[in-house]
Amino acid sequence: MDWDDLRVFLAVARTESLSGAGKTLRCDAATVGRRVTRLEEALKARLFLRSPQGYQLTDAGQRLLPHAEAAETAMTAAGEDLGGTAGKISGQLRIGAPDGCANYVLPQVCAAISDLHPDLDIQIVALPRVFNLSRREADLVIGVSPPTAGRLTVQKLTDYHLHLAAHRDYLARHPPIRSTADLGAHRIIGYIPDMIFDKELDYLGETGAGPVRLGSNSVSVQMQMVRARAGIGVVHDFAIPGAAGVVKVLPDEISLKRSFWLIRHADDRRSDRMNRLAEALSEGLRREVARLEALT
């Protein structure tokens, strides 16, 4: 079985299309289609169901998938073993994260990793949704809750804290807030309710605050609304040091705690490169969250 054919198989399985696989592999869709057909003929098994909606794995394709992923891991490990220099890591690392972490914590963490490994290309994908590791949308994912299904390795990174917050100028122009009962007189900033992609992000139910009057599916947009003196919102403590004039509201009465989790594909445990990168990311994130929260 040709490794290049397995690479094509994995690309189609992850993108569910010939064109998507072609972009990943930097070749045309027709070539991808011929390679898939060649692999199916060699194995005497149909690997994909073709439809207008895309390419879906058959039972035979599902059985082949873990073997192809194991081959990919072995080839990557061989390249790392033969090509490594003085402990430096090169290549590409794509990190998926919710936009709060991606905006306020990861830039500093990734800058430090890049200083240690200047030939490493780091990409931060900040999206308010759950990432699909089986499709290799990212190499490492930071989540706000641990997944319960899939061939994944999950470890808790650190707790982080959130509070109601507003700009000092907003608070000076509006009725005082001495208890949660006073929140009803204020404009609330938060998530668009039907776009909350993880139950851990459903903050307002725990605060006693009223309905969302200014909403966004992005944490960073919500913070910009708070900075614009538009109202009161739940913000990450680690975001406050970078937002001049923003202060906590009722910190002794309302305090939320959540956790970040590092999520990896199970096969990546065999890769020394990925283990080292995961360790560097984990240590850096814990340290940066603790540093920023200590400033609030």
Automatic annotation (TrEMBL):
Alphabetic keyword roster: DNA-binding, Transcription, Transcription regulation
Sequence ranges assigned to domain HTH lysR-type in this UniProt record: 1-58
BP terms from Gene Ontology: DNA-templated transcription
GO terms, molecular function: DNA-binding transcription factor activity; sequence-specific DNA binding
Pfam families listed in its UniProt record: HTH_1 (PF00126), LysR_substrate (PF03466)
Similarity comment: family membership: Belongs to the LysR transcriptional regulatory family.
Descriptive protein name: LysR family transcriptional regulator
